[in-house]
Write a structure and sequence with these properties.
about 325 residues, mainly alpha, about 0% strand
């Protein structure tokens, strides 16, 4: 009987699916989600004797687990849809979804639950007040709060303070984000590289310290260049020497898009500040080219050719970086 009453996670997510991206842009059926949430939470909170014909303790336990999966699915859908609107800069709908997710989470897990931190992130446009609440929640759950979540919280505070031109606070939070991500994933990890990039941008934007900013962006390029080159050459990086947690294959689509924008922006900054005929600019051209090839774009070859020209001019035709790119281009042609 428990199987008849149980909430199948895949079927449930299909049931509350909101259609294509284009359909979702016209509006989210929050009423449908809320009705489903109320139905499940009511069943979850009902006295044991009202749970249908479930008789054994095992049946009741399985039934409760399925209801909890249903609650998780609703929250995941709400956060996902809100994130989509946030990425599209549709802040009104993102805010609406963030509040709805927060309501669901607090009703399901309580107002002190660590689960609500992600919902607060989605309410970024109301940032300082909500982030302060999220920070207090993290402080109260310090022992169980994941390092990645702490890093993300500091990153959002840092981005907020950059917008507010609060230099000291921005730098402290950006540096804390780097620290927690490096502690969790390693100093030369792909995910950690995003924190280096944000810190470099903060140096450029707030203090006009171009050299420091470019130094952190160089770290980003070094990390991505080595990962991409090893991947395209079907080689493994030495994890004893090159400690990291995330491979290219581990990256989700949103991170890949963020990486594309990040690498392109670094190239613009280095071209402007260092000029075309600089070794670091050449390596950044190469990294952008390797990235484009990795995601299947033909324009990656042109970027690699530009990098080879720079290496040839600065280092000479026989230098290992020049010959390595020449060989790679020959293999891709």
């Amino acid at each position: 009987m428990a199987e008849e009453n149980a909430v199948n996670r895949d079927e449930f997510e299909d049931e509350i699916s909101l259609g294509s991206d284009e359909q979702r842009k016209t509006g989210i059926n929050w009423a449908q989600l809320e009705q489903k949430f109320v139905e499940i939470i009511t069943q979850l909170n009902s006295p044991p004797q009202t749970k249908g014909t479930l008789t054994t303790a095992e049946q009741k336990s399985d039934f409760v687990k399925q209801l909890q999966l249903g609650i998780e699915a609703i929250i995941e859908v709400t956060l996902s849809e809100s994130s989509m609107f946030m990425n599209e800069q549709n802040y009104e709908k993102a805010f609406e979804g963030g509040l709805k997710a927060l309501t669901f989470i607090q009703r399901a897990y309580g107002k002190d639950s660590i689960h609500q931190v992600e919902a607060y992130f989605l309410l970024f446009k109301q940032a300082e007040e909500y982030l302060s609440i999220a920070n207090w929640t993290v402080v109260k759950n310090r022992e169980t709060c994941p390092l990645g979540l702490r890093a993300e919280l500091h990153q959002h505070f840092g981005l907020l303070y950059v917008q507010q031109k609060k230099t000291k606070e921005a730098m402290e939070n950006m540096a804390a984000s780097v620290y927690y991500l490096a502690l969790q994933n390693g100093t030369r990890d792909l995910i950690t590289s995003f924190a280096y990039y944000n810190l470099g941008n903060a140096f450029v934007a707030l203090q006009n310290k171009i050299e420091k900013g470019i130094a952190f962006m160089k770290k980003v390029i070094d990390i991505w260049h080595d990962h991409l080159l090893a991947h395209l050459k079907s080689e493994e990086l030495d994890k004893e020497e090159y400690k990291y947690s995330n491979n290219l294959k581990d990256l989700e689509e949103d991170k890949i898009l963020d990486a594309k924008r990040m690498l392109s922006h670094i190239l613009k900054i280095q071209t402007k500040e260092l000029g075309d005929n600089h070794i670091e600019t050449g390596k950044t051209y190469a990294t952008n080219g390797l990235f484009e090839i990795w995601i299947g774009k033909e324009e990656g070859k042109e970027l690699l050719r530009k990098a080879k020209e720079i290496f040839s001019y600065v280092l000479g035709d026989q230098h290992i970086q020049t010959t390595e790119l020449k060989q790679l281009l020959e293999e891709k042609d």
